[in-house]
Every structure is written in C-alpha cells, then in structure tokens.
TrEMBL record:
Domain of life according to the entry: Bacteria
Cross-referenced Pfam families: DHH, DHHA1, RecJ_OB
Domain DDH: 77-236
Family the entry assigns: Belongs to the RecJ family.
UniProt KW keywords: Exonuclease, Hydrolase, Nuclease
Keyword Hydrolase: yes
Organism of origin: Candidatus Uhrbacteria bacterium CG10_big_fil_rev_8_21_14_0_10_48_11
GO molecular function, one term: 5'-3' exonuclease activity
Residue stretches making up the RecJ OB domain: 463-568
Name of the protein in its database record: Single-stranded-DNA-specific exonuclease RecJ
Keyword Hydrolase among record annotations: yes
Gene this protein is translated from: recJ
DHHA1 domain sequence ranges: 351-447
Length: 574
C-alpha cells in the first residue's frame, strides 16, 4: 500500500549553508521532545555513571537481593525460568552468570519449549520443580500473569521472584517479590527497560550488596558488571523497547562491550553472520545477531541459544553458532511459505478493517513474523492463527491507530489466554466459533474507531534537505543520534525535484534500484532503494522526482562514501 508522506514540522525548511548541522540537529532533537540543555546533554553525551539509575530505587529490590543472597549462602536449589525469545535467553545468561560468579552452586535454567509448553509458567514445569525440591524460582520475561502457577509453587514451598516488563494486569500473582517497572506503585524512575535490563539491575544490586560487605572487591564487581552489557545491548534492540533514556545509555555502552566481547559464542555467531567485531551497530544486532538467537526458540529449542551465550570454548561456540544459523535459514524458508499460505487465506477479505488468516499447523513460532509482513503489506491490523491439537494459537500485529490488546480485553471470554501490547499480541482460542466472534468484534470496533477515510501508512519525514547535504560532515552530525531503533528512528528526509542521471535495477533478482541524481545547482549523489526495483521501468533520465530517503554511509572494499537509502519515490510535485 502506498505511503502517505507527512513532514513532521512544516516550518522545517532547507537549512542555510552556514548552519546545516546545527539547524538539523536542533530540529531532530525537538522532534524527539528534547528541548532543555539537560535533556540534550543526556541524549547526545550519555554517561554511564551519571545516567544509569541505582537498582535499589526499585521498591522491592532490597527484598529480592536479600532472598537471592540467602539462597546462595545456604546453597538452596534455584531455578531461573526464562522466556524463549532473545530477551528471555539473554536475561537468563545475565542473571545466571552473575549468580554463579557470586557463588551459587545449585542454580539451573529452564526455558520452555514454544510449541509444547507455550509462553510463561506452566503447571507441568512447576510440578517438576516441586518434585526436584526447588527452593527458589526466578522468572525472567514472564510471570506477571501466571497467577495459578505461582500459587501452586507457593503452596508447595517454592518461593517465586518475578522479574518481568510486560503489561501489568489488574490481578497480580501472589509471588514472594515482583519486579516490574510498569507497576503503578513502582518507585523506579524509568519504566521502559526490557527484561534483560531488569535482570541486569538485579545483578548490579547483588554486586553492590556484596561490595558493601567487602569494599576491596569494588573494582572486581564493577568490571564484571560491565562485561554483561553485550547481552543487555542485544536484547534491548531485539525486544523493540524504546531507545531513549536509560535504555539508550545501556545500549551505547553495551555496543562498546559487544565489539570487544569475551564470549566465544557471540564471536562465532558474529563471524558466521558476516559481521566483524569492532564494527557492530544496533543494525547488526537487529538484522544479524538477534534473528539467529530468536530462531532457536522459533524453530525448536531456545536452550541452544542460551548454551551459545554461555559457551566457554571455541569448539562448542562454533558448533552452536552453526545450529542457530541453520535454524535461522529454516525460519526464513518457512516464514515465506506460511506468508504465501496466509496471503491465499486472505484472498476474499482483503478489504476488511482487520485481516484474519487461519491455517492448519502453521509453526507457532512464525505466526507473529507473518502477521508483521502482512501488516506492512496491507496497513491493517492482522491476526495470523494456527489450528493445532491444543487449540487455535495466534499472533496479532496492529497499526498505531488501533490498540489491539485493549480491543481483546473487551471480550476476554473468547480466549483460553491472551496478552501483549498495543500493537502486538499473542493468544489462544478454543475453537473456530471463537475466531468468528473475535473477527466480528475487531472489525466492528475498528470501523468505529478510525478506518473511514484512511489512505495508507504514514511516512514521517523529518525535514526538507538538498543534495548538497549528502557529505561526510553532515553524516557525522547525524551520527550523534545513533544508535537508532524504537522511538529513535533513523531520520527520513524529503529531497524534492531531483533529476535522474542514471538508473538501474540491481541484485540477483533485480529487486533493488540504484540511482544517480543531480539538482539544478550541480550537486550529484547516489542512492540505493531496496525492493524498489520496479521503479526502473517507470523512471526516465532527466525526469524530476521527489525522494524520501535516509542518509547512510556505504562501505565497499575499504572505501566509504555517503549516499541515500531510498525509502519511497514519487513524481515531483509542481
């Protein structure tokens, strides 16, 4: 569906030649709501010791630290129960590494199988822990909604600490302690940490507590804490939490650690994915490292990803990296197959407000990815549902204008279970009748909410620029805003009335577009448009066009040049 171009601030015109960088930097900061000198300094010049908050600001942190310390001292049996995605796996690696370094000898990890056990705590797992004599259960990236399972554990003598960052329901589990920055009574000043950030905070608090009793160990634990930041960076990016405030600080310092990582598994995975230690960015995590870690849980056993992160020798690291890489390749193939099948399932209802695709035995780990692809294609909320032996398991993705989890909360009786966020959800339905009722409810609600007159996805443009801005100095000014990601998107600029000097379709299947451009002032620039190869036959040399594009730095055989990454094209407006 075609983009609707929208300039964020109509007053932002091409900057003068004498104030290019300053003008655009100020405009981009204002776009992010950064207006004061203090906010500007925090964003552009973050400092680890100044800007990372004290973990004991969490209301329940002292209780958590005391209980874990007791378990370590008394050699109690501890189980760390983590979700199967990259956030859960990295959280487990952070916390278990810390517990073992602090002397925990009886700590084990449990990551549920996505297909067989589903998300969160489950009764069968709790029964295993009871039989094994577990004393302390710590959940990571799950647990906030597991009221019955935590009650079973507690009644059987297992104390449960929940460490989570998901939506907080009205009814809370009766756990020994619960750390979730989104709780209404929480005193911690930043609510957007991923679960890996929460696990890091617990580790940091445990180290501070140890140093309080052993001041001569300060340097030791400070160093250990910093080397955990590579895992914090990976999960912060892959879990799509906002990259501002404390998350931005943790990611910036985490990238420094990631590029020097001491983990053989990460080094092997980076090499296998085509990356290079020393040159890794947030995009490297998003497109190379993160998908391979997530693929383990999507395609089979997330424990393989955990084992990779914890590997202590090169042989195991290389072996496990190959397993994750092959899982990712299989995930890519299957995602394409399920996307094709889901597209066929939508053939007769593409004009509905909310699209629902149902299929038999589609891999549960892929339905969210497929929903994301269909959302991008149709600009409509999408549910992709797999009919399995244990019910209809689905995932949904939505547009910003429609809060899909809020819509589901209006009809809780339809679900076996459900949860999620405003634009992403997961759920299980008992039968096809429930699917039909849910589809009707969502479409009626969406029709009332916003869909009438909606034209297409909005492409937000930060400012109007000219080809003269495509140079090293201007690129360096934009680099101050790295790392880019959620709520800190790489800025897209409008270049109006530029002429096509040369045009070619490139790539193995000619799916991409390569352009050379010029303007009436004699400035020349090159650009690449991924998946825009169809424009090759639509453009004529010398023809004026408008571009929506990012400014990037391209590297080829050791040479660097600044160019455009074209997001969209239209015929030049008069």
């Amino acid at each position: 569906m075609p983009y609707v171009w929208q300039l964020r601030d109509q007053s932002v015109k091409p900057p003068s030649k004498t104030s290019d960088s300053a003008t655009i930097v100020n405009a981009l900061l204002a776009e992010r709501g950064i207006t004061s000198d203090e906010e500007r300094d925090l964003f552009l010049h973050p400092d680890y010791y100044r800007d990372v908050h004290d973990p004991f600001l969490f209301a329940a942190m002292r209780k958590v630290v005391d209980r874990i310390s007791q378990a370590i001292t008394e050699n109690e049996s501890i189980v760390v129960y983590a979700d199967y995605d990259a956030d859960g796996v990295c959280s487990a690696a952070v916390l278990v590494s810390s517990l073992k370094a602090l002397g925990a000898n009886a700590v084990t990890v449990y990551i549920p199988h996505r297909e067989e056990e589903g998300y969160g705590l489950n009764t069968k797992a709790i029964e295993k822990f009871i039989a094994a004599g577990v004393n302390l259960l710590i959940t990571l990236d799950c647990g906030t909604t597991n009221i019955a399972e935590i009650a079973l554990a507690s009644e059987s003598g297992i104390e449960v600490i929940v460490i989570d960052h998901h939506h907080v329901p009205e009814e809370m589990p009766n756990s020994y302690a619960l750390l979730n920055a989104k709780m209404s009574n929480e005193t911690y000043p930043y609510i957007h940490l991923a679960s890996v950030g929460m696990a890091f905070k617990v580790s940091s608090a445990l180290f501070k507590d140890r140093v309080a009793n052993n001041p001569d160990e300060l340097e030791k634990w400070n160093i250990f804490e910093k080397w955990l930041l590579d895992l914090v960076a990976i999960a912060t990016v892959t879990d799509l939490v906002p990259l501002h405030g404390e998350n931005r600080v943790l990611l910036i310092y985490g990238l420094l650690v990631l590029n020097k990582t001491k983990r053989p598994g990460l080094a092997a995975l980076v090499a296998l994915s085509g990356g290079t230690l020393g040159n890794l960015t947030a995009e490297s995590i998003a497109f190379q490292i993160g998908p391979r870690i997530n693929a383990a849980g999507r395609m089979g056993d997330a424990m393989k990803a955990y084992e990779l992160l914890m590997a202590d020798n090169e042989e195991d690291a290389i072996r496990l990296a190959k397993v994750l890489d092959e899982s990712n390749r299989a995930r890519q193939r299957l995602t394409q197959e399920v996307t094709s099948a889901a597209t066929k399932a939508l053939a007769n209802n593409e004009n509905k407000n909310v699209l629902v695709a149902v299929g038999d035995d589609w891999p549960i780990g892929l339905v969210g990815l497929v929903a994301s692809r269909l959302l991008e294609r149709h600009n409509r909320p999408v549910l992709v549902i797999s009919r399995t032996s244990s019910g209809l398991v689905g995932s949904g993705r939505s547009v910003p204008q429609f809060n899909i989890i809020e819509a589901m909360h209006a009809v809780p009786e339809l679900f076996i279970k459900f949860g999620g966020h405003a634009q992403a959800c997961g759920f299980t339905l008992p039968d096809d009748n429930a699917v039909e009722k849910l589809t009707k409810h969502l479409n009626e609600l969406a029709s009332k909410k916003f869909f009438e007159g909606m034209q297409g996805p909005v492409l937000a443009l930060s400012a109007v620029l000219e080809l003269r801005h495509i140079n090293d100095d201007f690129f360096q000014s934009l680099q101050q805003f790295e790392p880019f990601g959620m709520e800190n998107k790489r800025p897209i600029f409008l270049f109006g009335g530029v002429s096509v000097v040369s045009c070619s379709a490139v790539g193995a299947e000619k799916k991409h577009l390569k352009l050379m451009l010029s303007d009436n002032q004699g400035h020349v620039a090159t650009g690449i448009g991924f998946k825009l190869g169809s424009w090759y036959k639509k453009l004529s040399l010398g023809e004026p066009i408008d571009l929506a594009a990012e400014i990037i730095q391209n590297e080829w055989r050791g040479n660097y040049d600044v160019q455009l990454r074209i997001i969209d094209i239209r015929k030049a407006l008069p």
